Amino acid sequence: DIQMTQSPSTLSASVGDRVTITCRASQSISSWLAWYQQKPGKAPKLLIYKASSLESGVPSRFSGSESGTEFTLTISSLQPDDFATYYCQQYNAYSGTFGQGTKLEIK
Amino acid sequence: QITLKESGPTLVKPTQTLTLTCSFSGFSLSAGGVGVGWIRQPPGKALEWLAVIYWNDDKSYSPSLKNRLTITKGTSENQVVLTMTNMDPVDTATYYCAHRLCRIATCPPGGFYFDFWGQGTLVTVSS
Question: What is the pLDDT of residues A79-91, one digit of tens each?
Fold first, then answer.
């Protein structure tokens, strides 16, 4: 099974900050990685697919990148609406594994 | 407009079988490339993928839960059913169904990410 290690588990930041969340796969997954945002009591929302493709309607301050088996979600300038929990998900063939989540808190 | 909604019991007893139904609109599960998946989330914990069914009736299951799960298309063409046997208190979670449609070259064969989600249904396992 492919394991996804997400870090940090908690991140404190302020409005306007640039933040980065990382996900590392236990083996190669090519670019088959998605990022989701989840707010309390709500279903996850797709932000990015194929490592760096922005889902329609998602603000351009969100971006994704990859380097080997390490994937990064960057929020260029935090907005109040961005404080939430973020999950990565690998989707290599016929399999899907989520990371443990990163809770983005207001500093 | 794509919508999905989960339904089923809110409380099940240990050892019982859970049956959840995902009712959806705005897409056809017969259309090429479409899939519906199930994901769960224990209270305060991370998301866990369970199963997915594709337009061609192929299915994939989480390796750790494979022996307990069955995903099928429902009797109605806009429903997907998930059954999980031998329920345990650790299976207490919010269960989500979600839509899969990989855009061109954005998924490997059988790969899936989810662009539309249901609101989720909380299932508690307790005697």
Answer: 999 999 999 999 9
